[in-house]
């Protein structure tokens, strides 16, 4: 299993295709949420993913300040269904936070989390800064982390 972190321009066409396919499988098909998955933020983002047997099994999109919020952010967090409940999601978020701090110099991170994952993100030091609200039929909450530890 290999972790990769790449800018949009560093992704091969095959990697980009695999990322978009897995994101669509999880967020559009599995979660039954019809929305514009390709949202124009990928080009300004870093893409952290893990590959096993030529398949993406974990992925997170890391965004510098100004892409989604005034703060740095991450999103499109996914773990392939065969690898859920193995600690892969925790490892993925830890690696993403470490990159934001160590490589991008970020200390504050704001995210839009599905509300059922609020406790998961709280375990990393995030706290809610909004009430739960509907986003494309799925309850979400805005959260922030003000100091990244690595």
UniProtKB/TrEMBL annotation:
It holds the Pfam family Acetyltransf_10. Its EC number is 2.3.1.-. Residues 6-148 form the N-acetyltransferase domain. It is an enzyme of class 2 (transferase). CDD domains: NAT_SF (cd04301). It comes from the Bacteria. Keywords: Acyltransferase, Transferase. PROSITE patterns: GNAT (PS51186). The keyword Transferase applies. SUPFAM superfamilies: Acyl-CoA N-acyltransferases (Nat) (SSF55729). The keyword Membrane does not apply. GO terms for molecular function: acyltransferase activity. This is GNAT family N-acetyltransferase. It comes from Priestia flexa.
């Amino acid at each position: 299993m290999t972790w990769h972190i790449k800018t949009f321009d560093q992704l091969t066409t095959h990697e980009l295709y695999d990322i978009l396919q897995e994101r669509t499988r999880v967020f559009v098909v599995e979660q039954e949420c019809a929305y514009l998955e390709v949202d124009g933020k990928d080009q300004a983002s870093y893409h952290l993913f893990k590959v096993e047997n030529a398949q993406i099994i974990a992925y997170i999109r890391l965004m510098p300040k100004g892409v989604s919020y005034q703060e740095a952010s991450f999103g499109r967090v996914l773990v392939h269904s065969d690898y859920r409940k193995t600690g892969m999601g925790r490892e993925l978020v830890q690696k993403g936070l470490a990159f934001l701090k160590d490589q991008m110099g970020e200390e504050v991170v704001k995210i839009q989390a599905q509300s059922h994952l609020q406790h998961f993100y709280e375990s990393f030091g995030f706290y809610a800064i909004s009430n739960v609200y509907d986003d494309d039929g799925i309850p979400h909450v805005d959260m922030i982390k003000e100091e990244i530890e690595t």
